[in-house]
């Protein structure tokens, strides 16, 4: 957002400078057109490309950095001597400033939008209360309104003052001016100008630009009106302008969507001067003005050049973080939290957990916590709602003051689940050439696909045969979860109450745990990930569907649930197959096709399609 503010402000200053330098040397129509660049930039919240000439390059990259560049908490001597609560509070306070600024921006937009709506509703009500329709043969409806300080165009209707309505010549010139506004689409420009003020209510340059662009709109319409009336009426038009234009208004008039003729004495003097001088466009002047503004716009529409920092050469200072990464392990707890265990090597002064997770309303929240640091011993930190995190980092500060190293926890978690070898083995294939599978190889596959291979539990690989898909990420998750070996059934009343509170609970609010006719199966996200990773090389985060109508998910327990009491294995018997390079296609007698892809010394399931 800071880039948006800087680039749009720089463009405003460039257009204002061009307006001043070429004042009286450009046609008002071209002068007004320059503001279109500013309007587009103010409404465009992103940059179109990156450039070293972008104004936002003046902002240090760290200001808009991601979690990997967040400030790291460092203790003067050791993290153990600093109270963990104070460290965590300090980390949280660093983020609340940005979140508070965002909240202020939203509130300011709401107040500005409210002021705009109320101002225009009050103005419209005043017009309706005092207006009287005139029959003057104009293409647009024309009304006389006693409450107006000057004539205006307001949502397709022209409103004139009693003085202008009483003189035929004056009325003709007023109508020519307001019809010029209509032809040029200035009503739409007024609405878009108000939208810019709403988005950038905090920026005085935007209010200044709105005032100047409104003034230039009147200059352009003066030029268009005189062209429509004829040169013989130039001086009479100027006299009409002097007699009808009300002075004053200021910022209040910027809140109206009407194209009022109200202005300051200075703007009136400028308008009369241009009418008297009748400026002509010199080709060189126009070309120079357009070139300057185009260059300014090119810079303003570009973003800061991303500076790629090369990976540091491994040194003794970076070794502690690598050693710490190698010690990380994960253990899901019964309360649904994820315990992250790690051993702190020498050379680490502090560790901060920083991340972002998805909330129930699909929004996002930042997360910060100081992790325990006990050198040479195993430490642990518990993260609630682990599966809802979209980013999670360990910011590891070094004792030698060389800075910090970011460890991607989610990547480490995934690496521990997704094995280097696929979970399905086929002996005798080297991944080269095209060969038909032998009977021994088919028997080997069928032994791995035996639904009763798991003993008392169904073989989990069979759950991949419950639906057809072009990628395991697109399979029917409810069908996959049905009859998957569970992590026990629900017996805890608090967990049962949480299930009943879920919108997909199918048994009514009066159900009790003791009266349930079917068991409630619990599946830890960690257990599901293990199956998905072993046989398909994916995790729950890769699934495109997720829980459907048959399954529930409780984030506080990080578990999925379903309700079944029967037994229904899914069968696939390999009848034939062929291997081509690293891909294997296996066919059932019914023609179903299971495609496997080589991963290390094994194979992952790539697709399962109906024959």
Q: How is this structure best described in words?
A:
With 611 residues, the protein is of the alpha+beta class. It has three domains: 2-57 and 94-117 and 168-300, no CATH class; 319-416, Sandwich (Immunoglobulin-like); 434-609, no CATH class. It contains 18 helices and 21 strands. The chain has helices spanning 2-21, 28-33, 35-43, 84-130, 162-165, 168-183, 186-199, 204-229, 234-244, 251-254, 265-277, 283-300, 319-327, 409-417, 439-448, 477-481, 493-500, 525-536; strands spanning 49-51, 131-134, 142-145, 152-154, 157-160, 302-304, 329-332, 338-343, 348-358, 364-371, 378-383, 389-398, 404-408, 434-436, 520-524, 552-554, 559-563, 576-580, 583-587, 593-599, 602-609. It has a five-stranded antiparallel sheet with strand order 14-18-19-20-21. It has a four-stranded mixed sheet with strand order 2-3-5-4. Helix 8 (204-229) packs parallel to helix 11 (265-277). It is elongated and about 100 Å long. Residues 60-95 and 306-318 have low confidence and may be disordered.
Provide a compact summary of the structure.
The protein contains 18 helices and 21 strands. It is an alpha+beta fold.
Major beta sheet, specifics?
Answer: 5 strands, antiparallel
Global structural class: alpha+beta
Strand-residue proportion:
15-25%
- Rounded to the nearest angstrom, the distance between the terminal CA atoms is 52 Å
Radius of gyration: 35 Å
Count of distinct structural domains: 3
Low-confidence stretches: 60-95, 306-318
Mean pLDDT: 79
Strand order of the largest sheet: 14-18-19-20-21
Q: What's the total number of strands? A: 21
Q: Which shape, going by the Cα principal axes?
A: elongated
């Amino acid at each position: 957002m800071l880039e948006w503010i800087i680039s749009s402000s720089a463009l405003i200053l460039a257009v204002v400078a061009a307006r001043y330098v070429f004042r009286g040397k450009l046609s008002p129509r071209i002068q007004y057109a320059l503001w279109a660049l500013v309007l587009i930039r103010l409404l465009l919240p992103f940059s179109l490309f990156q450039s070293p000439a972008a104004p936002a390059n003046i902002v240090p990259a760290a200001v808009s950095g991601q979690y990997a560049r967040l400030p790291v908490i460092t203790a003067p001597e050791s993290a153990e001597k600093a109270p963990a609560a104070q460290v965590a509070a300090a980390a949280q306070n660093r983020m609340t400033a940005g979140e508070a600024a965002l909240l202020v921006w939203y509130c300011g937009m709401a107040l500005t939008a409210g002021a705009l709506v109320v101002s225009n509703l009050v103005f419209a009500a005043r017009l309706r209360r005092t207006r009287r329709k005139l029959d003057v043969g104009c293409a647009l409806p024309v009304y006389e309104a006693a409450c107006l300080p000057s004539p205006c165009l307001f949502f397709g209707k022209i409103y004139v003052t009693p003085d202008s309505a009483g003189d035929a010549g004056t009325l003709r010139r007023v109508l020519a001016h307001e019809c010029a506004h209509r032809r040029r689409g200035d009503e739409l420009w007024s609405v878009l100008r108000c939208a810019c003020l709403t988005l950038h209510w905090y920026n005085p340059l935007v209010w200044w630009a709105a005032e100047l662009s409104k003034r230039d709109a009147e200059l352009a319409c003066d030029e268009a009106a005189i062209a429509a009336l004829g040169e013989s009426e130039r001086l009479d038009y100027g006299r009409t302008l002097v007699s009808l234009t009300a002075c004053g208004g200021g910022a209040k008039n910027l809140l109206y969507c009407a194209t009022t003729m109200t202005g300051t004495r200075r703007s009136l003097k400028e308008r009369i001067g241009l009418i008297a001088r009748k400026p002509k466009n010199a080709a060189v002047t126009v070309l120079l003005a357009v070139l300057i503004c185009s260059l300014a716009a090119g810079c303003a529409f570009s973003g800061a050049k991303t500076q790629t920092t090369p990976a540091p050469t491994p040194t003794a200072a970076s070794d502690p973080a690598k050693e710490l990464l190698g010690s990380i392990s994960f253990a899901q707890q019964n309360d649904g939290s994820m315990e992250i265990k790690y051993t702190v090597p020498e050379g680490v002064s502090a560790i901060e957990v920083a991340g972002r997770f998805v909330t129930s309303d699909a929004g996002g929240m930042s997360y910060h916590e100081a992790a325990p640091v006990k050198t040479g011993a195993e430490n642990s930190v518990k993260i609630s709602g682990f599966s809802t995190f979209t980013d999670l980092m360990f910011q590891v500060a070094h004792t030698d003051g060389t800075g910090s190293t970011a460890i991607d926890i989610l990547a480490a978690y995934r690496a521990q689940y997704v094995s280097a070898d696929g979970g399905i083995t086929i002996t005798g294939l080297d991944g080269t050439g095209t060969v038909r599978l032998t009977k021994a190889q088919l028997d080997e596959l069928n032994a791995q696909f035996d639904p009763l291979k798991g003993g008392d539990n169904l073989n989990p690989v069979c759950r991949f045969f419950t639906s057809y898909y072009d990628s395991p990420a697109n399979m029917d998750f409810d069908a996959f979860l049905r009859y998957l070996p569970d992590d026990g059934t629900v017996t805890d009343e608090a967990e049962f109450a949480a299930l009943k509170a879920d919108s997909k609970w199918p048994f009514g609010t009066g159900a009790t745990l003791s009266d349930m006719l079917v068991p409630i199966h619990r599946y830890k996200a960690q257990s599901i990930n293990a199956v998905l990773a072993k046989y398909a090389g994916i995790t729950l985060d890769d699934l495109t569907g997720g829980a459907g109508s048959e399954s529930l998910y409780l984030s506080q327990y990080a578990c999925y649930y379903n309700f079944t009491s029967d037994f229904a294995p899914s069968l696939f018997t390999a009848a034939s197959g062929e291997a081509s390079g690293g891909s294997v296609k296996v066919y059932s007698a019914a023609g179903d096709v299971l495609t496997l892809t080589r991963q290390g010394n094994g194979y992952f399931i790539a697709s399962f399609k109906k024959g």
